[in-house]
Amino acid sequence: GTADVDIDLDMALDFDGGDDYMVAPHTLTDNYSGELTFSVWFNTDTTDDNDNVFSLSKSTDMAAWEVSLHLVGDDLWLKLDANGGPYWKEEVIDGVFDQYENSWVQVTCVVAAAENDTGCYVNGEWIVGAVTNPSGYPSSADRDYGITDSLYIGGGHSMNNLFDGTVMDFRVYDTHVSDADIQILASQIGRPTLATPELWWMLNEGTGTDAFNTGYCGGTASNCDGEIYEDLTTLGATWLDSPFSIVAQGNDTGTSGD
What we know:
By secondary structure, the chain is mainly beta. The protein has one helix at 179-185, and strands spanning 3-4, 6-7, 11-16, 21-24, 36-44, 50-57, 66-72, 75-81, 88-93, 104-111, 119-122, 125-127, 130-132, 150-153, 164-173, 188-189, 199-201, 210-211, 226-229, 238-241, 247-248. The longest helix has 7 residues, at 179-185. The protein is globular.
């Protein structure tokens, strides 16, 4: 089906897939509940690459854990890497993400205490995807997201797999957001309808190299401001003015994979 989307933003942040990314060096939370919800609107220019839409890392050390939303060709994966070991991942969209190429899509992912409650919604629809878990669902210790070193939008701490496309209205809630509220996230952009998220980068600045956090951030919002890079070392950004005409889409999720 289709539904109109209520938009309250004028800008979005564009990444070239080569050397652009945004990082908030100090993120999350003194109120961590043991569960997280991520919400993001994005528009990918190509589905031929291997791209991180976002990545939340506990350390820049590759031995630490990371949670990421990852495009692999025409697949969309939610991945939980734990201490450098085999990872848990769910194939949210199997082989047909090219249906969203050059169009806006809203994805909300929940990392929950229970494996069956962990996964993603695409345009408000809960997707049951194929899970790969060679070492089982990460333990509560491996999912200790209470203090993190960095959250990347458009990339990850290894600086590989940089995103080719545009992002706006990225939020992190330090709880498991209800299904009813996830439907609201899929129908609005930039509206403060729900409780204040822990982290919220609207990406609506339109100029400069800072992405200002308007979330709670442990009570000190500016501690979670982001820095935008255009060539891995130089601060910069590409801002798009009025970049969207959005109608929420029905979802073809493909077939379950192994």
